[in-house]
Amino acid sequence: MIEYIRLKNFKSFGDVEFNLLDKKGFPKKLILIYGENGIGKSNLASSFFMLSETMQTMDMRDILQKLLSQNDDQIDDEEFTQLIKARYKDMETIIHECKMVGSTDSMYLELGFRINEKSGKYIIETDDKQVIHERLEYTLIKNKGTFFDLSPEKIFISPKAFKSKNALHEIKSACEKFWGKHTVLSILMHESTDKADKYIKEQISDNFNSILKFLSRISCKIKFGSRQERGIIGLPQELLGSLEKGKVSDNEENQLDRIAEMLTQFFHLTYRDIQKAYYKKEKKNNQIHYRLMISKFIAGRTRELDFSLESTGTQSLIQQLPFMLVAVKGSVSIMDEFDTGIHDLLVKDLILSLEKNITGQLIITTHNTLLMESGLSKEYIYVINEIENGNKEVQCITHYDRKIHPNTNIRDQYIFGKYSGIPDHTSIDFKELLTLLKKNKQIF
User: Which domain holds residue 266?
Assistant: First the structure.
């Protein structure tokens, strides 16, 4: 699980550390992040997204090279659509989107993690165009050590990271060629998942392989202002890439039926008028094209609806369900604005249910203050505040009051400003705004 993340010159954060450890020094399984609008909640969540993106740049390179080498009539529509939807980016684009505007210093991300009860640390540092430092520390075999440490001046990769010298030399050679434009993790993930050559995957040491699995299964659902939400998800094997529509091979039809049964159960518990979920299927060329349908009780009788006609809140809930299941199954899931479009009371019930079932780690940003008086541990609740010189801090509310009485209404304390992280009270004269517009007669 994640122990902490430290960011420098990342979006709106000059230098901030987000510590996820409890009083006993163990990673917390649930973290709720509050703060006023525009304070940086989405930016904090997107730091995990950026980490996932940097591990995919080699895949983007391969897909683009393949597409550019083909004639227009040879390009596979599905592969091209997948590329556009995933929005694979090169390293320079990722840096451009994430590095603090106007900063001349390097952008720095440090992730502390714990796997198999042992702590490790991953560091990635960039200038304006490429990676300038990357380092990974964890237990090599028995003792903690450095798996790799790269900069423009040196390439160090521990021989203990691989089971053979040939694999070590192969990765070193790839790093000499690609590192900077790509991270070591991206290079290694690409080489180890190459379907044509499983040699590298088989030569990675057990501990190194555990790190790669952990990092690749971090799932992020992030919202970027008015732009579309994006997600990178290490889906449980039992789920599909999309619950709403898509296509699968013929031999996955039973999986579709199991998912429909699961969704029916989920809807029974969340919406009283939805009676059943099922997939409308059409078989083409050894594939099943599917669309999610629901049976819904409307105006005195049951009616069949395409799920795309459902409310935005219900659709949002289904899009978030896989990310919830990721945390239940044992991986890390980060969800920005978890409560968007969902009733406050349903959000409360969902979080309380998740808290009982999480075996991994769930990190969410939210404005739902009802969660503060739901009986959840005060150690789960964090606030982002602006401190001196426009800098930010991310603190658990116990930082502000270490001896919160069990009977204290945390929600009231938050609203009254004890933990900060709330907007200033304001009174807006909307008539004055109209008056300003009326000065321009072309508008009115």
Answer: 235-323
Residue range 235-266, pLDDT digits in tens: 666 676 688 888 888 888 888 899 999 999 99
Same domain for 129 and 57? Answer: yes
Q: Could you tell me the pTM of the whole model?
A: 0.86
Pair (161, 260) in one structural domain: no
Q: Lowest mean pLDDT: which of 79-88, 158-167, 257-266, 295-304?
A: 79-88
CATH code assigned at 101: 3.40.50
For every residue of the chain, which 3-state class applies, written as one string?
CEEEEEEEEECCEEEEEEECECCCCCECCEEEEECCCCCCHHHHHHHHHHHHHHCCHHHHHHHHHHHHCCCHHHCCHHHHHHHHHHCCCCHHHHHHHHECCCCCCCEEEEEEEEECCEEEEEEEEECCCCEEEEEEEEECCCCEEEEEEEECCEEEECHHHECCHHHHHHHHHHHHHHECCECHHHHHHHHHCCCCCCHHHHHECHHHHHHHHHHHCCEEEECCCCCCCEEECCCCCCCCCCCCEEEEEHHHHHHHHHHHHHHHHHHHHHCCCEEEEEEEEEEECCEEEEEEEEEEEECCEEEEEEHHHCCHHHHHHHHHHHHHHHHHHCCEEEECCCCCCCCHHHHHHHHHHHHHHCCCEEEEECCCHHHHHCCCCHHHEEEEEECHHHCEEEEEHHHCCCCCCCCCCHHHHHHCCCCCCCCCCCCCCHHHHHHHHHCCCCCC
Domain count, the chain: 2
